[in-house]
Specification:
Blueprint lengths: L26 H4 L7 E4 L2 H12 L5 E6 L4 H16 L4 E6 L4 H6 L7 E6 L2 E7 L3 H11 L2
Parallel strand pairs: 1-3, 2-3
Antiparallel strand pairs: 2-4, 4-5
Length: 144
């Protein structure tokens, strides 16, 4: 049996095998589940448009207040992406407090990371700190 029969590429002197170093064959795994959707809000105008639109529906909005220099915030990022992929009926947005200070002040996001849960424009709950399980419980509670 040759190496090709086992699915291994055969390298021959003087030829390159670009497919050997390609990850195209892994794309089927990334298509297996929907990509996490966490919208990063970059301007006051974008924030107002998003927030005003959320007032008109009964969908839970989870606002993640964060900063680039915040280690615990970065630690929670994978969990938030996981939640966004799991709870597709919930909107997740991320706000950098250094870029949108007025929004952070409006929601009194004084400690980071802070997660504010909003429905129809009103705060229904919040979680402060690295509290993955607590946040998940509150998302489950308010998403209905």
């Amino acid at each position: 049996m040759s190496a090709m029969e086992f699915g291994f590429p055969v390298l021959r002197r003087g030829r390159t095998m670009s497919r050997l170093f390609s990850f195209d064959h892994c794309n089927e795994f990334s298509r297996a589940k929907p990509a996490a959707q966490v919208v990063e809000i970059r301007s006051t105008e974008q924030w107002k448009a998003y927030f005003d639109a959320s007032k008109g529906n009964n969908k839970l909005l989870v606002i993640q207040f964060t900063a680039t220099w915040c280690g615990p915030c970065r630690f929670m990022d994978p969990a938030i992406k996981e939640f966004a992929a799991t709870y597709t009926d919930v909107d997740f947005i991320k706000i950098d407090v250094d870029k949108l200070m007025l929004v952070a002040m409006q929601f009194e996001a004084n400690s980071l990371p802070a997660f504010v849960l909003v429905k129809k424009g009103k705060e229904v709950d919040r979680v402060v700190g690295v509290q993955k399980l607590e946040l998940q419980i509150k998302i489950e509670q308010h998403r209905i």
